[in-house]
Amino acid sequence: MRAFFNKRKKLAAALLLLITAGGLFAYNESDRYFQIAKNLDIFAAFYRELNTYYVDDLPPEKVMHKGIEAILEETDPFTDFVTEENLDDLKFMATGKYGGVGASINKNGEWTAITDVYEGSPMDKAGVKPGDIIVTMDGKSVKDTPQEEISKLLKGAPGTHLDILFRNPVTNAETAKKIIREEINVKPVSFSGMASKDIGYIRMTQFTENSGAMVRAAFQQLKQNNPAMKGVILDLRGNPGGLLDEAVVVANIFVDKNKLIVSTKGKVKNWDRNYETADLPLDTHIPLAVLTNHSSASASEIVAGAIQDLDRGLVIGQRSYGKGLVQTTRQLPYNTKLKVTTAKYYTPSGRCIQAIDYSHRNEDGSVDYVPDSLKKKFTTQNGRTVKDGGGIEPDTSVAPTYISQVAVSLLRKQYIFDYATSYYYSHPKIAPAASFTLTDEAFADFERYLDNKDYSYKTRSEDALENFKNTAKKEKYYDAVSKELEQLEQKMKHDKKQDLLKNKTEIRQLLEEEITNRYYSQQGRIARALTWDRDVNAAISMLRDPVKYKQLLSADRK
Fold it and tell me: Which structural domain, as residue segments, surrounds residue 501?
């Protein structure tokens, strides 16, 4: 809902939102409300004349939505108009619940296949497996049907049914199943276990209703089952946030009662509020590491920022997203809603970590990140220096992991997924997820599986050379350097087979994750990936070193 318009169209379209039946009231010309009322009156006349005399019919709903879109272009991307048909998406963001069948899908060529099945879901109860291909839904073929359309068909009110014909990806046998939709509750704690023999691990994927209580229960279980646990990792990587109240509950697990976690300040001063911990914590002393990356946003940053400002634990990984804005939903007519940014939030030290300044736009309408020169310094409880305006900077930075181009191609072409499916049907069982390894024989079998399959790709170096050639042609230098460029191009040509072997470790890991997912669902995938996770291993190392841990939390750290 974020189409861009030129300035003239944007001005006209924006006015389309502002229909009013009321007349003008007497306001001072300098009064902002007079300007609003004046332009509402102008718009009413404008739309009336346009609708009456324009040569073609203008569909009111379409025109109005364009007006709304244009107005929203002047706000931040988190302020949005929610139509009646999209209310379920808004509800899902708050509750983690939706009506459906409990499976993920992906389109590959003509057909759409099941990629993940949630434990205990209708699909799981019906015996549907990852890799199964959807042939028909309620008797209608879904060949060449867009993935988005199939996704909509799978969702629906709990208790309604869906007749689906599945095709086995290995045997091609077709099986009809009646799937009864249920309320699916996506668990905010996707994994809880031991990352090593002495370090606990909790992965939290979203801040929805009661998610704080679920994290609390997971931590209690870890302590109960592992009394010798020396530290715990709270993984908020990729967590886009959610409910602010739940962030306070999560922080309260490790932070004492009556401690300020976050405050909000906005235009409506009556809504300004301080959020403090309300309950007794579970553990205020166990060494704690919070993992973040650039996709950790909003409520995730509230937790990470509070833990950092209160010197309760270490933030490890990469800088967080930098979303310091709070949204509230407002009811609109005809069962629609406005999700509007009403405030900024501030961590206990007083910093707002909003990274992009939407309130000051450039002449072309673009927005910029807060420059380093304007970032202010704050201090944590122990006197450590932290800054605002750019997300949460980790106490210990870990370089992000990038996968190779050949791996990207194998994933994109679904070859890793398809091989895992065939592996599953030819191996009745495997070792526990955390210890499963793919043998060299199996990897050689994967190489044979790729024979005659197209997974071509361009390396970054090849892309750079291609860009240079195009620039040289435009600037009339190409003829002078063409021979040298051709020689360089020949030297840079990659051998797919060699690239496969050069990145064998990485590709083997991706295969192991996908295969364990077949036998142990998402829990298995995560358990296997923890073994080589660089952020997790950095956190384990830090939590096992009490001297280094305390030093990093000290104001005189070096």
Answer: 405-459+494-540
